[in-house]
Amino acid sequence: ETSLTGKYSDVEGNNHMTRSIGLIRSQEPSYSEDLTGSRCSLEGSRPIGQVDKHILLLVHGVGNAGPEITDELVKLLRKRLDETTLDIITVMLVRNCKLTPADVEFIQPSGSPATELMIYSLPPYCVSWLPAVAHYLRQNLLIFLHIPKYTDSNTAHHFKHYFHLDYELADGDIYLYNKPGGQGTGGKGIACIALSFVDVQGRPVQVAAQECSGLENCSPPLHPEHFEE
Predict the structure, then answer these.
(1) What is the residue range of 85's domain?
(2) SS3 of residue 190 by DSSP
(3) Same domain, residue pair 134 and 211
(4) Eight-class DSSP state of 68
(5) b/e per residue, 183-193, with b = 16+ CB within 10 A?
(6) What does pTM read for this prediction?
(7) Is 4 helix (H, G, I), strand (E, B) or coil?
(8) Cβ count within 10 A of residue 124
(9) Residue 89: Cβ within 10 Å count
(10) 116 in a structural domain
(11) How far apart are CA 42 and CA 78, in angstroms?
(12) What angle do CA 151, 207, 201 make, to 5 degrees?
């Protein structure tokens, strides 16, 4: 018979982390009165990137642990911990708390590709009006999306825009979707959404502010037939 012991313990050194940063949020001390409320006040005094505790899973038995423990049980524990982490971060974002580097890593793991990629083609006549299109698109996105806030001013610890390799552009056109969930509202979730304007080759296009010194320098007016295409 195989017995299983799981406990929280302090781990020193460079021990291997099975889930890396994603576990950190559930490793923090829990406060019965208000976990997320006290977390906001603690982040200012806590060193950035500090890991307080790890989770140590010990398996004892007469033989090596089988896949039902090394794979299935570990996956189940990771899922439960991720769900707990998600619950805490969603409530935290509702209270307008700032994201720590650990939060950013949990939402957007380093080097991970986008889970969904959506491409929309604009009509050719919109090219001349691209600054206006970009302005109103961003304005409408902010109706249900949010601009992320961070505890660390170092952009290396912010969400990344993988179309933009320059760190100076890392925060540009990046939004955060947060759905805490609840009765009658469906599931909960968090998403990092990156917006890009690209050319036909998929290369990013910088949309600058439109300047018109005179009517002759402005874009041509729209015509009714444009909207019939």
Answers:
(1) 3-102
(2) strand
(3) yes
(4) I
(5) eeeeeeebebe
(6) 0.56
(7) strand
(8) 9
(9) 23
(10) no
(11) 25
(12) 105
